[in-house]
Design brief:
Elements lengths: L3 H17 L4 E6 L4 E2 L11 E6 L4 E9 L7 E8 L8 E6 L10 E8 L5 H4 L8 H4 L14
Parallel strand pairs: 1-3
Antiparallel strand pairs: 1-2, 3-6, 4-5, 4-7
Length: 148
C-alpha cells in the first residue's frame, strides 16, 4: 500500500510535469502600439506563442523570427490561417523554437488579406455550381429572355 505522503508527492510531480508540457507562453501583439508583450523581452528557453487581434478581412498571419537585425538568419517561423467557416477575431501562432535568453531577435509579422477564390481557380469544382451562378458555357447560345 502506498503511503498518503508518497501519493501526494507523486501527484504533485505528475501535475507539475503535465502543466509544464504543451504550454505555450503567450506574447500579445498590440497593433495600436505595434509592440509584442508591451515591449518586454521575449520568453527565453520556453515554447511560446504570438497572439493578437485580427481584422475580419485578414486571412493569413505569418511570424518570422530572425537571429539578427539584418534578417539574414531565421530562427523560426509560424503561420496562422483563417478557416473558410470561421471568422475568428484573433490569431494565435505557436512557436516551438526556444529562444536563448542572452540573444536579440527581430520579429516580423506579416498580414495578408483574405481573398475569396474565384470560379477560375475552382477548376472542375465549378461544374457543381448551378449554371445560373456561373453564366453560360462557352459555345452555348444564351436564350433571350421573353419580354413581358
Amino acid at each position: 500500500m502506498i503511503k498518503p505522503r508518497t501519493l501526494c508527492a507523486i501527484l504533485a510531480l505528475l501535475s507539475l510535469s503535465l502543466a509544464g508540457s504543451a504550454q505555450y507562453q503567450p506574447v500579445v501583439f498590440d497593433p495600436g502600439s505595434n509592440l509584442l508583450g508591451n515591449g518586454q523581452p521575449l520568453p527565453a528557453e520556453k515554447q511560446w506563442s504570438i497572439t493578437g487581434p485580427v481584422a475580419p478581412d485578414i486571412g493569413i498571419v505569418e511570424a518570422r523570427i530572425y537571429e539578427d537585425a539584418a534578417m539574414k538568419h531565421m530562427a523560426t517561423k509560424g503561420r496562422w490561417e483563417q478557416t473558410e467557416l470561421g471568422n475568428s477575431p484573433s490569431f494565435n501562432i505557436n512557436l516551438d523554437q526556444k529562444l536563448r535568453g542572452n540573444a536579440k531577435y527581430t520579429v516580423v509579422l506579416g498580414f495578408q488579406l483574405h481573398r475569396p477564390r474565384s470560379l477560375r481557380h475552382l477548376g472542375h469544382q465549378a461544374e457543381r455550381i448551378p449554371w445560373s451562378l456561373r453564366g453560360p458555357k462557352r459555345g452555348r447560345q444564351q436564350q433571350p429572355h421573353p419580354s413581358y
